[in-house]
Design a protein that fits this description.
391 residues, globular, 15% strand, alpha/beta, binds 4'-deoxy-4'-aminopyridoxal-5'-phosphate, four-stranded antiparallel β-sheet, eight-stranded mixed β-sheet
């Protein structure tokens, strides 16, 4: 047998896998299919007019800067708007092309040059994160999630038994897919474990501004050099602009900037300046965030009442915001997706988010996009598909 050519090897390299959700979006766009699958922001909540004002101003006043190469670490005025805390240090901020790139850069930096690195991730966990970790050859260890987020006690047991991860990835607020939020006690304990066992906590927090209940939003993870925070403008402003950021110890940020330099030199100057214009209009920005929360609150209520009406036996994980309802249907839903597509509705099966533990009875429903007046019909179709597959 002749050895495979380089082209044959590269075209069948299974380190690169496609996200089930990205694949599903193709079906979800078919005419007549109502989609509860994608976690896209609602189109009516994208601030198109305000972005148009910012773009016009940029071209009129600073076109030469906006269309020029920029610094790898990001535009200083945007970094200043993103930095937090009582003694803000802009050297903590690296602007990235969405938080997805931030994850990729952190994963590259954290890879051990000599051996396979272990990464801990919530189970079920965010597909975009597991995809990045796997593509870099990291070994994933899934740790369970309940209504208070990552089971830090489970992680502590694994660490005591000898697990030595380099990274622990968490989506601490309104987790994708379960909607769960990491409790303050668990956040504290997680950082203590990171300091004791010397691993980095990657806290990917794109939904943190989308608290939809009266309860205060999540308590942020305690300050520690072991914590790398990832932020994103995708859920609050626009995913198409591809603006995210890393907030971490300046020594790590300096290294991550070198990794980014090799990847893409810098994030779009124009888009960064546009975001800075919009965010620095603080009265508008906070009214906009309130408007988003109102919009998503209504959408969530519409989906929740449809689930209560048509899937009365579903156990919905308590959540305080974000984009998703995680529903345990109590029966194996392995064959539900094709049946649901036949009935004209799309969703994401829980199994797509599973790392080590099966999630075969759960599904993720998104209320962030699509026509909310159709949610009742969408869940009615889902219930009909469920009845057809379980009868
Ligand atoms: N992290 C989580 C938990 C997400 O849900 C998403 C978007 N689905 C991302 C990161 C990617 O965000 P961005 O558009 O900033 O790359």
């Amino acid at each position: 047998m002749t050895a495979p050519t380089l082209l044959q090897q590269l075209s069948s390299d299974d380190r690169w896998t496609s996200s089930v959700i990205r694949d599903l979006l193709v079906h979800a766009r078919q005419p007549g299919v109502l989609s509860l699958a994608g976690g896209l922001p609602a189109v009516e909540l994208l601030p198109i007019e305000r972005c148009q004002v910012a773009a016009d101003r940029l071209f009129a006043e600073r076109g030469g800067v906006a269309l020029q190469y920029g610094l790898t670490s990001g535009e200083p005025e945007l970094r200043e708007l993103l930095v937090r805390g009582d003694a803000p240090d802009v050297d903590r901020i690296l602007v990235t092309a969405g938080s997805q790139q931030a994850l990729d850069l952190v994963t590259r930096l954290a890879a051990s040059p000599t051996e396979t690195s272990t990464v801990v991730i919530e189970d079920p966990g965010y597909i975009g994160a597991s995809q990045v970790f796997r593509s870099h050859g990291h070994q994933l260890v899934g740790i369970g999630v309940d209504a208070d987020g990552l089971r830090v006690d489970e992680l502590a047991d694994h660490l005591a038994a000898g697990l030595r991860p380099r990274l622990c990835y968490v989506n601490p607020t309104f987790q994708n897919p379960t909607g769960a939020t990491l409790s303050a006690e668990r956040a504290q304990r997680l950082v203590e474990l990171a300091e004791t066992y010397d691993f980095l906590v990657v806290a990917d927090d794109p939904y943190v501004e989308l608290a939809l209940d009266d309860r205060p939003a999540a308590t942020p993870l305690p300050e520690s050099p072991q914590v790398i925070r990832l932020g994103s403008m995708s859920k609050t402003l626009s995913p198409g602009l591809r603006i995210g950021w890393i907030d971490a110890d300046p020594r790590l940020v300096a290294q991550l900037a070198l990794v980014k330099q090799a990847a893409d030199l810098h994030t779009s100057t124009f888009n960064q300046l546009l975001v800075a214009d919009v965010m620095s209009d603080s009265t508008w920005w906070s009214a906009h965030l309130d408007g988003l929360r109102n919009g998503y609150r209504q959408r969530r209520a519409a989906l929740r009442s449809a689930v209560d009406r048509h899937l009365p036996n579903a156990q919905v994980t308590p959540q305080g915001g974000g984009f998703f309802l995680w529903c345990d249907l109590g029966v194996d839903v392995d064959t539900l997706l094709p049946a649901a597509l036949d009935h004209g509705v799309a969703f994401v099966p829980g199994a797509a988010f599973a790392i080590d533990q099966p999630a075969n009875t759960s599904i993720r429903l998104s209320y962030s996009s699509g026509d909310q007046t159709q949610y009742d019909e969408a869940v009615r179709r889902l219930a009909a598909a469920l009845a057809a597959t379980t009868s």
